Amino acid sequence: MTVPYRRPSRRRIGRIVTAAITGFTVLAAAAISWPALAEPSGDLQLGVTHTERSIDDWGAPDSIAAAKQILADIGPLQNQHLMGWGTLNPWPDPESAQRNWETLDTRIDLIRDTGGTAVLTLCTAPGWMKPGGGRDEDDDGEDDMDWEMEAPVAPEHYDDFAQLAAETAQRYQDVKYFQIWNEFKGFWNDDQNRWDYEGFTTFYNTVYEAVKEVRPDAVIGGPYAPMVTYQDDGRHPSAVGGDWGVVDHRVLDAVEYWLDNNVGADFFTLDGAAQTSDGSWYPTTTDQVTDKFQAITEWVAERTDLPIWWSEFYVELRPDSSASTPEMIEAALIGMEQGGAEVALWWQPECSSTGSFPCLWTSVQQPAGGQPTPFTPLARSYSDR
C-alpha cells in the first residue's frame, strides 16, 4: 500500500516554534511520486484543506502570487471537497448528462500549479440526492438543499452519489487520495440516539466500490469520524479519557462498526478538537492538548493497521474565541504523531476577516495580502518536501 512520504525521523517534543519567517521556495507543478513504505516512520506529514476562502482569481495579483509561494512551500498534501467548500454543484440537473466541473477544475489546477499532491473529499452531495431535495421554493434557480451541509445522501440516491464520485475520480486521474464523506454528516439515528453507522457504512461501501471499479489505483479513506468529547460528567462515557474529558462512546461504537463492516479502506480518517464538543472545557496547557490527541490516536491505532489521518483538528483556548497559538497547535500535532498518526490536514489555511481560525497566509483579497503568519513556520516544519 502506498502512503504519503514521511521525512526522516525528527523529534519535536518540547520544541517551540520561534524560527524567523524566511523566503519561500516556489516549486514546479510536477507530478510527485510517493514511495511505498513497509513500516511507519513515526513522522507526521501536515497538509491543508481549502475551503470557501482560498487563493482565488478575484484577489489582488501580487497577493495571489505571494500566497501561492507560501502554499507551494507548505504542501504537498492539499485537500478539496467535491462541492460546498469553495466549489459548486457539479450535477445540478438529475436528468442531464452534463456536469459543471468549472469550480472544481479551478481548485485542482491551483493544487497542481503549487506542486501539491491533491486529496479529494467526496462530500457534500447535490441537493436532489438529499432527503427533501429537488425543490426551489425561492425561485433562485438553485436546489434549496444544495447547501444543507449537514444533510445525508438519501438511501435511494446512494448509487447516484457513487456514480458522481466515480466520474470525479475518472476526470482527475492525477488525484490519488480520496476521503469519503465528512464527519458522518446527516447520518444520525434519532430513534436510537446514536450515529446511523449501519446506513453510513452501506453508503461508504457503495461509494468505495464505485470509485475502485474505475480507479483501482485510488487510495481511499474513511470514515472521517468526529471525535465528540465531553467533560467526565457521566454523559455517554467511554474508556478513552483524561483530565481533558472523555470521548463519547457513541462515536467509538460507530468507528468499531465501520472497521468491522467496510468492504475496504486504505487509510483511516477522523477529526476533533482540543476543547470539549459542548464548549464546557478548554485547554490551558500544552500537555493537556498533547495528551488528548495522543490518547484518541492511540485508541484508533490499537484497532487498525491503516495509516491514520486527522482530516481536521482545532485548538480553541477560551469560550469566546477560536484564538490559538503556534505552541498549542504544535502540542496537538505532537500528540497525533506520538499516537501514530501519519497525516494532519489544516482546515482553511487562508485568513478570513470574518473568522478566527489559525491561518497560514493573509487574505489575497487584501492589498499586500498573501503574507505569512505566526503559524507559517510551524506548518513548514511539518511539511518538509
From TrEMBL:
Residues 366-385 are annotated as: Disordered. The keyword Hydrolase applies. Keywords: Hydrolase. One of its GO terms (molecular function) is hydrolase activity, hydrolyzing O-glycosyl compounds. The keyword Plastid does not apply. It comes from the Bacteria. This is Glycosyl hydrolase family 39. It comes from Stackebrandtia endophytica. The lineage of its organism: Bacteria, Bacillati, Actinomycetota, Actinomycetes, Glycomycetales.
